[in-house]
Amino acid sequence: MSALERIADLLRAAHLDSALTSPEAIRSIVSERRRATGIASDDAYADLAARSSAEFGKLREQIAVPETWLFRYPSSFETLRAQFMRQARRPVRALSVACATGAEPFSIAATALAAGVHPDDIHILAIDPNPDALERARTGDLGRMAARGEIPNWAQQYVTVLPNNVRVAPEARACVDLREGSAPAALFELERGSFDAVFCRNLAIYLSDTGRRAIGEQLDALLHPDGILYLGHAERPALFGLESGFESVQGGQPGAFAFARRSVATPAVNSVPPVQSDRWADRDRAPLPQTSPARPATIAAPKPPSSNAAAARTPVTVTSNEPTESKMLQSARAAADAGDLHKAADIAERIHSTGDRSLALMELLGAVHLGLGDVISAESAWRQVVYLDPQNVEALLHLAILADRRGDAALAQRYRARAAKGTS
Ligand SMILES: C[S@@+](CC[C@H](N)C(=O)[O-])C[C@H]1O[C@@H](n2cnc3c(N)ncnc32)[C@H](O)[C@@H]1O
């Protein structure tokens, strides 16, 4: 067995997708790690990766990138906030699988605080196998790219955006237990049915089908009977083998990618009155500042392009503003959120055929086609996204993965290098 095959085996044992870990796909990544470690041969490097979990972690990081930011998919946090506001059960518990540098669990913490939950009643467990990413999370200094989209008004008191850094407030960090571990193994020991919200976002794209299903089984077991599962924009419960058990949260926001068990009649999660701050009157600590009232339900707005030049190149200018998003695009998004990807693709393609090449539409098409397994259409849509928004990290990473799947490791590496520039 060649050295690259041995390394590929190690990566597959960690549940990574075989297309991303084939000897061709990992050749340039291994060369890069050999350069970084000063190791002369692939054989010697394979030995190192087998015996050093730290080095294996560095290798895995080149494939499953610790890419994240605060309030990613803002609608999901509106849905989560409404969930926490209406849930009487205390404490509230959330799980963030693949938390990377912590932006996701910290966003969950800020959301719970803003929903009026007492800090002592917020328990968030965040898991990731990457020790460097967790170390960064522990500092609370997430780097400037952690605030890429909009921070909701109600969460701004927990986030400080500085010119070259984004800092999360200690009270939000204190709610989060950051633990090194890999799914599914790290999930076996956790209490069944104990998590009100389970986040597992943007991990599935890197994993084998077996790995996703093994994780899905655990997510299902860990979620409270009336809990909510939060996934990434191109992910659906079916990807985790949970197709029959879950459906989109009724009354949840479009773009929330939030799923509840079919057996649970989910009330309209947005129709909850703001929590009164005097609920902690019987506690010996002062209540947190009153949170602002819930924003009205909104359609998830795509991220704005990262440069004005990109905006200038947009052939049709309907890009990111909620009020200008067409009704058709809204219904395509709603269909995608409801898990009806065929309908979403159909509507989105009809809009596309009118000549619309807006960022919002192309992002939706990329996600929907990827979800349907149509990698050719997905790739073409993500390419258009990168044309409109050259630093769109999400699109660049999707393109890297798709190039890997085609066996074009050199192109994948170029996309990754561009994405890395955008995250630093
Ligand atoms: C793209 S990030 C996702 C970050 C965050 N969930 C989000 O959506 O913003 C992918 C993360 O998955 C982590 N990862 C890779 N394999 C994993 C596994 N088996 N279990 C848990 N996390 C894993 C990587 O270390 C990386 O930090």
Key features?
single chain, 424 residues, alpha/beta, Rossmann fold, Serine Threonine Protein Phosphatase 5, Tetratricopeptide repeat, 3 domains, seven-stranded mixed beta sheet, two-stranded antiparallel ribbon, 9 strands, 44% helix, 11% strand, globular, binds S-adenosylmethionine
What does this structure look like?
The protein is α/β, with parallel strands linked by helices. The chain has three domains: 3-63; 74-277, Vaccinia Virus protein VP39 (Rossmann fold, 3-Layer(aba) Sandwich); 308-423, Tetratricopeptide repeat domain (Serine Threonine Protein Phosphatase 5, Tetratricopeptide repeat, Alpha Horseshoe), CATH 1.25.40. The chain is 44% helix and 11% strand. The chain has 16 helices and nine strands. The strands form two sheets. Strands 5-2-1-6-7-9-8 form a seven-stranded mixed sheet. Strands 3-4 form a two-stranded antiparallel sheet. Helix 6 (103-114) links the parallel strand 1 (92-97) and strand 2. Helix 5 crosses helix 6. The longest helix is centred in the N-terminal third of the chain and has 15 residues, at 23-37. It is globular and about 60 Å long. The protein starts with a helix and ends with a helix. The relative contact order is 0.11. The model is unreliable at 271-323 (pLDDT under 50).
